[in-house]
Every structure is written in structure tokens, then in C-alpha cells.
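[Automated response] Your request has been received and processed.

Submitted sequence:
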Amino acid sequence: MNLKELRTALQERREDYSASDAKLNRRINQSYLDICSRRKWGWLRREFTANTYASVSTSGITLSSGSRAIEWKAASPPATVLGKRIVVGGSFYRVVDLDSTGTNGVLDRPFIGTTAAGLTGTIVYDEIALPLGAQTVVEAVLFTGTNSFPNSLEAIKPASMNHRDKGTFGQPTKYSAMEKEPIFRPRTPIGTLTPASVGVAGLTPGSVYKYWYTFVDKQTGAESALSDSTSVTLSSTHDGVTLPAISARKDLLLRLYRSTAGGSIPFLLSDMQSESISTPMAVTDTEPDEYLGARGPSSGSSMFLTLYPAPNSHYQIQMVYQMEASSLDDDNDRPLFDATFSSVLLDGAEALMLTAEDEQRRASSATAKFEAGIQRMISSDSLSFQDRVLIGR
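Generated structure:
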């Protein structure tokens, strides 16, 4: 059952059609997220594979003793340095900001070496952004090639990573998951959108569309939160939208999102180049709603996998992770668990509504049914939780 069907079913249970859709959605989502929080469900496990990148050497660096400023004189820094660890002058720092030229940055703390120009440093790529909503990593393995035998990765505590050698490079053998600050969010929305008549039966004439974009870190895969939206209204003769040039913040890539006709939820535009490094994007969008991609992020990436030693080559890290559920927002959104348990969700939503209306006797009965339903879901989810792993449904 999707969200719209769940609302109708809840109204029929109550034989009360006076509640607003917003109120019904709120109770349904309270019940749904309550179920999702009860345990590490098998249907909340997902599989994810990421590439690693070798650390790179960069030259022409100018640093001054006691200053946080870093400048690349002889050559531009490699992509990507923003937010990355750099080993220079025998010490390690992190580049926390980069200006619009891409050659002047700021370190996380003052340089303690001797003032010098023409220094050589190493940009360390030892982090992988986990998908949004990831809570914990269940298991991770490393492949040195697409057909190679998997190599085990040992999970260690984040605090133990502080004891590692900062200058060790090679094939990773350990990993740790930790929270980090999200990358910068776009502060400027997309400019003026121009309706277009393309004649390819793409967008729906007479509809309103919204557009967003995000920044993406090429090396880690981290994605920022969405920009503010920009809207455009098509006339009865328009079936496309021409977007203005969009420039990514220096050192980051672009990803573009659009709503469905008349909608307000962002989805990835699947027909266009989703990443364009430091180059303005100017495109005409004619993609039908049916071919939009995944839903856009509700927040920026903040959970990262740190590898040790820092990778010295391309490797593939494959992992199973535990995700957290997000609320049902669109009428077509469906719970992640099997549809046979929709009645359990409705029991919980009904109990919440009865409690709010101070019908304690009926609320207690609905709550008991809700709790019993969750126990049925637990027994169905896994007979041996440690041995049985479900990845999606």
C-alpha cells in the first residue's frame, strides 16, 4: 500500500473522513518510523560498492610558518583537495576551505614548519562517504579487481584510528565508520528557467516544475544538501525547460534534480551528465517524469568510512550497511517492509489518533494489536539474526 492508500484505509477504520491529509500523514509516519526503530531489520539492510583513489603528489606549494594559508604557485592542486588531508613538511593538515581560483586554501591549523615555496605535498584519499541514511556498517570487504577474491577488512573503533600512522599507504586492511561535517551546500539557487517548445513529448504542458542542485565530492562520493528550489510554469505549448549555466563550487562537482509535474519532491535528472567538474552546465530538460532517477538527499552526507592504510591504488570496497528509514512524503511512497504488514502500521496510526482524542480504552486495544503485530514482524524477519541477512525486498 502506498501513502495515499494507507490514508484511505485509516479513514475507513475510523469511519471519519474529517481529518486532513497532513494529519493522517503525520500519524502514519509516526507509526512507520516507530516500527523501523524497533530493531535492526533485515529489510533495512543494503549493499553498497565504492571505489578508492590513490593518494596523489602535488607540487608548487607555498606555506608560511604560523599561518593557515596554503597556496599553489607552480600548478593548480589536483581534484579534489577541499576537505582532504595533506601531508607536507613532515606533518599532516586538512584543507578546510578553497577560494574561487582553486589555488588558495586554508588549513585546519597553522603550519608549524619553516616558511618555504615550491614544497611538495601528498593529498590523501582515505575516506568514502556512506549512502545517506546509513547507520552502521555490518560487513565490508575489499576487491583488488572485478574478478578477484575478496580480502577481509577489519572493523576498528574510530578512536583506534587516531593511533594509526598518518603516512602509511598501501592496500587497506582496516576501516572505521565515523561522522564528519557535510560538504558545503549550494547557497545560490538555479537562475531563471525558460520554458521551451521542443516537440519530443517530454515534460507535461501547463505544469509547474521545480529544480534543485547539489555539490558532489568526486573522491569520497559525498553529496551536499539540496540548494533552494527554482520553479517554472509551462504553458500549454511548452514541453521542455532550458536551464541557465550552473557552476559548481571550485573543487566540487554538480548533480541536478527536478520534481515531477506539479510535485515538490526532488528526483535525479537521469538523462543528463550529472557531474561536471568546475564547468558550467547549460542544458534543455525534456526528460519525462517516468525516467527521473532516485530521490534527492534530505541532508548532506555525514557518515564516512575511513580506510587504513590510505589506498595506493584503485580498489573496490563492497559493504553491507544498516540504513535508517525516511518518512513517507509522496502519495506513491511505500513502506520498505512487506505489504502484508500494512495492517500493523495502521494499528499504530489508529492508536496514536485514539490517544490524541482521549479515547484511552480503544487506544489501549489498538496499541496491543500494534505491539503484537511488531512481534510477528520480528519472527518473520529472521529466525537467526546473526546468520540471515536480507538486503532489500
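Summary generated for your ticket: The first strand starts at residue 45 and ends at 51. The CA atoms of residues 98 and 105 lie 4 Å apart.
If you did not submit this request, please reply to this message.
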